[in-house]
Amino acid sequence: MLTTTRLPRFLELAHQRGILILSYYPIIYTKPLKPLHPEWLMQFLDNGRPEIENLGWFCFNSPYRDWLPEYLLEWLDNLDIDGFYFDDTNYGSHEERPFSPSCCCEYCEKLFRKETGLEIPRKVDFDSLDFRHFVNWRYEKMKDFYAPSLPAD
Ligand SMILES: [Zn+2]
Questions:
Q1: How far is C-alpha 60 from the chain's CA centre?
Q2: Ligand 1 mean position to 77 CA, how many Å?
Q3: Which CB contacts under 8 angstroms, 24+ apart, belong to 72-77?
Q4: Which DSSP string corresponds to 102-136?
Q5: Which of 14, 106, 134, 141 has the most CB atoms around it within 10 Å of its CB?
Q6: Distance between CA 94 and CA 114 in Å, rounded?
Q7: Would you give the DSSP letter of residue 39?
Q8: What is the pLDDT of residues 121-149, one digit of tens each?
Q9: What's the CA dihedral at 45, 48, 50, 52 to 10 degrees?
Q10: 11 Cα to the center of ligand 1, angstroms
């Protein structure tokens, strides 16, 4: 297999020359995981446009959040890469711009209710105060996913 012979040699030669190698990773898009954990997929809000198929966009409020670092650590354990460049850091629906806000999966629903006492919105409605509250909540969840609070020493 090419990757088992060429990639380690490439990494070795790059490191000999002082070059750091980052692997690209679309942080919430893991298409091969879709058949294994469809329950972790984002459920897009109704934005009035035709519904699109979720090809592999995962919700970081689901157990995907814990699965991802374990998966990436496995890469680091098996390849001498220096880190990751993360892409696809959005938290909206996909395929068509403008992207609509986010996810209303069972994990988001439970977390939103627990933290706010509100029912999660199922459709985009900027006239609704609860919806706008949800938009701010999801931004906080996104920030926490990308830069989690570290425990105090
Ligand atoms: Zn969700």
A1: 5
A2: 29
A3: 72/25, 75/23
A4: -B--HHHHHHHHHHHSPPPPSB--TT-HHHHHHHH
A5: 134
A6: 27
A7: G
A8: 999 899 999 999 999 999 899 889 888 76
A9: -20
A10: 36
- How far is Cα 59 from Cα 62, in angstroms, rounded to an integer? 5
Taking the centre of ligand 1 as the mean of its atom positions, its distance from the CA of residue 17, in whole angstroms, is: 43
Residue 31 is encoded by which pair of tokens?
């298409």
Ligand 1: centre distance to CA 138 (Å): 9
Give tens-digit pLDDT for 16-26: 999 999 999 98
> Tell me, what's the pLDDT at 51?
80
Residue 1 pLDDT? 45
Cβ(110)–Cβ(61) under 8 Å? Answer: no
